[in-house]
Amino acid sequence: MTYEESLTYIHSLLRFGMKPGLARVEALLKRMGNPQKELRFVHVAGTNGKGSVCAMLSEILQCAGYKTGLTISPYITDFCERMQVNSTPISHEELARQVERLKPLIEEISREGEPVTEFEAVTALAFRWFSEQGCDVVVLETGLGGRFDATNVIETPLCSVITSIGLDHTDILGDTYRQIAFEKCGIIKPDGVTVSYPVQEEEALAEIMRTAAMRRNTLRMGNVGALEGMNMTVEGSDVIYGRLPLHIPLAGAHQHFNAVTAVEAAWALRSAGLAIEDVHIQAGIARTKWPARLEIISRNPFVLLDGAHNPDGMRALVRTLKETLPGRKIFAVTGMLRDKAYKEAAAVLAPILEKAVCVAVDNPRALSGEALAGELERHGVQALAAKDLEEAISLAIKDVGEDGVLLVCGSLYLAGPARKQLLALKEKN
């Protein structure tokens, strides 16, 4: 099986199961010898900030000398980013080999009952690869929700982490903070330790506290009052948390809170017996890189790429741009999914924009460029639709000039293809 054939096979599987639950992935893992039982995990769920917190924790663990597995969802530019060991994605050849081994088991289970989904197959594959690689710890990011997420087959992890809870995937997870928090808190296992993002909506926090107490978990939350010296630029921030100086190379005040979450999780892991010193925490956070999180692609013209794709994420993006690039004219290339809260996201984004070029992202759930342009125009933004991403970037970049900023945002499904095109354009120039 070639890499291309392996991807075609993976993408041919159902996106979601007919019935929610873990029975399919449990059956698949049982036939694989339950590789997840040979691993130790940090399990991370939440609406926003999961990727950043996972990246920080992965780097911290590596700095402490642990061979570290990492899962992310979705990927930005290459499918193999979804599973990494010590920040190196699985190779195309190894992914193809693993899919070829897994395919007969998937088809066997599918013949016997309900078909295995894409995410279940990828999760099972990752567990076996991490086990074969001899990972000491795996930082495991959920895909959607938590309670019925395929990653939730694991037993009590070293630490469960709940990042910022927001209103996203409301058609599946519920339309209140409490309902969504209930689904995310499904990862909290009995007699464990849970770390929460330090600034949660009141009803989300109440659900986190309730679940942690019910499952006899120690609950750790960062103290935002202990954050000092927040020197913030679009390059990142220098802060002190308690007495611990931190350089955070990811921009935005929300990244201060993500870093606090990572620090508290690292301290929880230390209490669990891992040899993590404060110097490892400082070094790990300082070297964290995370594509498409206010990533500076170019400085002339100034180009920023961000994967914000829901109203809470968009609010964090807008707040950061106002604080770090005051007075700069912002021109956007943007595309969104029609099943997201795109009207609210557009309303949040519109006030900072000089002009926008809208495009449909490469996804069956894409909102048309014309519909998004119309939504932004309702909020007073000069907006037009482009036929494709290449045209959108070409049209927008003409207006940026020396003092402007080109912002590409709206969806992670836009961020990946845009990153490739922007880097190629930078190389050519």
From TrEMBL:
Gene3D superfamilies xref list: Mur ligase, C-terminal domain, Mur-like, catalytic domain
A Gene Ontology molecular function term of the record: ligase activity
Ranges in coiled-coil conformation: none
Stretches assigned to the Mur ligase central domain: 44-265
Top class in the EC scheme: ligase
Reactions catalysed according to its record: (6S)-5,6,7,8-tetrahydrofolyl-(gamma-L-Glu)(n) + L-glutamate + ATP = (6S)-5,6,7,8-tetrahydrofolyl-(gamma-L-Glu)(n+1) + ADP + phosphate + H(+)
UniProtKB keywords: ATP-binding, Ligase, Magnesium, Metal-binding, Nucleotide-binding
The protein's Enzyme Commission number: 6.3.2.17
Stretches assigned to the Mur ligase C-terminal domain: 293-411
UniProt cross-references to InterPro entries, sorted A to Z: Folylpolyglutamate_synth (IPR001645), Folylpolyglutamate_synth_CS (IPR018109), Mur-like_cat_sf (IPR036565), Mur_ligase_C (IPR004101), Mur_ligase_C_dom_sf (IPR036615), Mur_ligase_cen (IPR013221)
Keyword check for Metal-binding: yes
The organism's place on the tree of life at top rank: Bacteria
SUPFAM superfamilies on file: MurD-like peptide ligases, catalytic domain (SSF53623), MurD-like peptide ligases, peptide-binding domain (SSF53244)
Membership in a protein family: Belongs to the folylpolyglutamate synthase family.
Name the record gives this protein: tetrahydrofolate synthase
Species assigned in the record: Solibaculum intestinale
